[in-house]
């Protein structure tokens, strides 16, 4: 009788294991953000850090100033209402999933590593790249997953400019707060105090 | 005095001409639609024909069954909630404006001329092309314009299959109403009557 019970229990455990759906991994875009005046202006204050945010694959992830339109809000009057968009897609003739970026700003170029995007230009994001516009620097790195229903984003804050590491040239013109990020961090100069109107 | 009046009038006309903004042309995607059972099922009944519809460039034009999500609604239970999307963009290092198409259907391939798009695959539309999915055929032709704020769409209805003209192979499997479009039109056979449940 005990043997019967044991066998029955094993059968139940095995069949319940089979019924559990295979857990699916989700592609995550890790975004490390840097702005030379973040400490004063808190331009990233509306973003959630170290938290994976899940989006449906048919959503266009919008980054910009207008919180009514953008999922990812940059608190900075110099930023366009929609600065850029990210979209999920699957590579033709491949199972590789990735992101397309499109510049939605008429006034500011968007630079992906060394490729300049004008207004309405789009490009497929490399697996790892640095995005720049104005004073903003975003290191984007894709963590591959299997899901074709969702993707995720996850933000981190960089304490120093991301460009030195990658040996990319600093952007012209002069940054918004008037001090080059390399000066701020290499010479220990703190950014000048901001007027409230600048916020 | 008359001469004075004439000169004054000319000056007024000239200056008012200068003040008028240059009229900007808008890129228009002309879409000619065909479905073998349109006459019976009226799958295109919610679309406006011979009317240019203007959209903002940041809008994703969605085609599909779900009228809550899609601008362009196909009245057919065989169509996915969102079948495909169209997006406006500007070619990199060029002033050329165009459209990107993305297949949003998990169950049906989208064929652009002879390129098969699976779910989440995308491609830039050629200037003129034929899109196919299931029994649907769409001839898409771009009329170039200058605006970077808007694009337009304009629909027409085709009375016969678009494939003969372009010598494209008919799609497998057998069309929804059980009769091949080439049979319907080349042999004058009318499609069989539909049950209400098929609608």
From TrEMBL, chains A, B:
GO BP: cytoplasmic pattern recognition receptor signaling pathway; innate immune response; positive regulation of canonical NF-kappaB signal transduction; protein homooligomerization; tumor necrosis factor-mediated signaling pathway
Key word NADP present: no
Keywords: Cytoplasm, Immunity, Innate immunity
Pfam families on file: FHA (PF00498)
Domain annotation FHA: ranges: 62-134
GO cellular component, one term: cytoplasm
Coiled coil segments of this chain: none
Superkingdom, taxonomy of origin: Eukaryota
InterPro entries in UniProt: FHA_dom (IPR000253), SMAD_FHA_dom_sf (IPR008984), TIFA (IPR033621)
Compartment(s) where it occurs, according to its Swiss-Prot or TrEMBL record: Cytoplasm
UniProt main location, coarse: cytoplasm
Family: Belongs to the TIFA family.
The protein, known as: TRAF-interacting protein with FHA domain-containing protein A
Organism: Terrapene triunguis (Three-toed box turtle)
Gene name of this polypeptide: TIFA
């Amino acid at each position: 009788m005990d043997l019967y019970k044991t066998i029955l229990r094993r059968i139940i455990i095995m069949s319940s294991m089979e019924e559990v759906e295979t857990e699916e991994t989700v592609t995550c875009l890790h975004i490390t953000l840097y702005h030379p005046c973040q400490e004063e202006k808190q331009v990233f204050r509306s973003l959630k850090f170290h938290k994976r945010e899940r989006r449906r694959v048919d959503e266009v992830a919008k980054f910009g100033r207008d919180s009514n339109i953008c999922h990812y809000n940059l608190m900075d009057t110099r930023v366009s209402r929609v600065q850029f968009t990210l979209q999920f897609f699957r590579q033709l003739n491949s199972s590789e999933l990735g992101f397309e970026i499109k510049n939605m700003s008429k006034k500011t170029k968007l630079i992906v590593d060394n490729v300049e995007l004008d207004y309405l230009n789009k490009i497929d994001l490399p697996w790892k790249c640095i995005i720049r516009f104005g004073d903003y620097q975003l290191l984007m790195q894709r963590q591959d997953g299997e899901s074709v229903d969702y993707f995720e984003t996850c933000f981190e804050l960089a304490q120093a400019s991301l460009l030195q590491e990658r040996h990319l040239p600093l952007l012209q013109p002069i940054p918004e707060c008037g001090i080059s990020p390399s000066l701020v961090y290499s010479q220990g100069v703190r950014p000048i105090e901001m007027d409230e109107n600048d916020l």
